[in-house]
Amino acid sequence: MNDVTITVLPGDGVGPEVTAQAVRVLRATEKRFRHSFTVLRRPVGQEAVEAEGVALSDLTFATCAQSDAVLFGAVGSPPGGAVRDLAARPEHALFRLRKGFGLFANLRPVRPLPSLFGASPLKPEYLKDTDMVFVRELSSGIYYGHLDPVPGKPSEIRRSGAVEEAVDTLLYTAAQIEQVVRAAFELAARRRRKVTSVDKANVLSSSVLWREIVERVAPEHPDVTYEHLLVDACAMRLIRNPADLDVVVTENLFGDILTDEAAMLTGSLGMLPSASLGARRTRGGRFGLYEPVHGTAPDIAGQDRANPVGAILSAALLLRHSLGLHQEADAVEEAVKAVVGQGYRTEDIAESGCTLVGTREMGRAIRDALLEA
Ligand SMILES: NC(=O)c1ccc[n+]([C@@H]2O[C@H](COP(=O)([O-])OP(=O)(O)OC[C@H]3O[C@@H](n4cnc5c(N)ncnc54)[C@H](O)[C@@H]3O)[C@@H](O)[C@H]2O)c1
Q1: I want to staple 345 with a disulfide (CB 3.0 to 4.6 A). Which of 89, 208, 354, 370 is the partner?
Q2: 36 lies in the same domain as 92
Q3: 280 and 235, same structural domain?
Q4: 3-state DSSP: the chain helix, strand, coil percent, rounded to 5?
Q5: Pocket of ligand 1 (CB under 6 A)
């Protein structure tokens, strides 16, 4: 595949260290499978504030808009006080990217590696065969009143005399629900063909509409089975029988909480990738922003101690969802599995008898495994 452009936004803290290893693996994928990717780099977060005065400049936004996909590291404020100007807050960069590109579906795969079962708080017998993907609605829901205040969606604390109250608005349009549910069914059709839709339809109107939309979209995929599950029951199923779940689709708040719970099944934050998909179609799939789940990890930044696997697996998601390169994505995931299986460990997943390596060495080992396969 040629004429593919990937914009890399390394960001702050460990972001540049882990994205460098992800790019290394993308370059190896190019070599092994004979593709040609154009990789552009732009500053984001605190680095961009220092260089360009804002956390995400118009030039960087335009560069991303002309790309097939964005590989993102992490952004975070420097220690010592909040920045007043919103555009100069590193976190604003992510918000602008999500909103500007209409990134409505946040995908988080959860597939604990057998060689790391020991790092999970769950017993291995519960983790066996676990392989699920969360599809979390990302563009609306109760968080948006606060992040993006608009008339009719109040999110505020009200104090008047003896009255002290607060309100948040949970609003979903049918179109917002439909696009994320449809994305979940499309994804399930390429996996084990099962969708679990999570809601709280016994008490929330937005969940009642959510169920109606699922019922409307499901007939488009007669080969995909589906079920409705209340969010509290889902929280239990995740621990009790995670292998039963394939594609889990849910609204923003429930997804935020459940994905953190699910993340614990895999052991370390440093292992987890994510994809945020937009509506724009690319030649191979959808435009998306790919990033490890972790933040800037200021406590270990600049010391070659960060686990690059979350970033490398994010690159695998990029290959799969924005470029449509499924075999290549599988190969990257297999390389990670092989290297971790051989006992290579960054310190967050270290155990006795392992080969303790730094960020760069872990990236090199995964690249070599990919090229030698
Ligand atoms: N998407 C993002 O850019 C994003 C996400 C979360 C947090 N943040 C920002 O990052 C900064 C730090 O936040 P935090 O400390 O709450 O979360 P964090 O994810 O940066 O770190 C939490 C803990 O996990 C460890 N850790 C994180 N990534 C790791 C990796 N790859 N390998 C090994 N260990 C790793 C850290 O050392 C730390 O002990 C804050 O400014 C926060 O706003 C950014």
Answers
A1: 354
A2: yes
A3: no
A4: 45, 20, 35
A5: 14, 18, 74-77, 91, 94, 269-270, 291, 294-300, 306-307, 310, 348
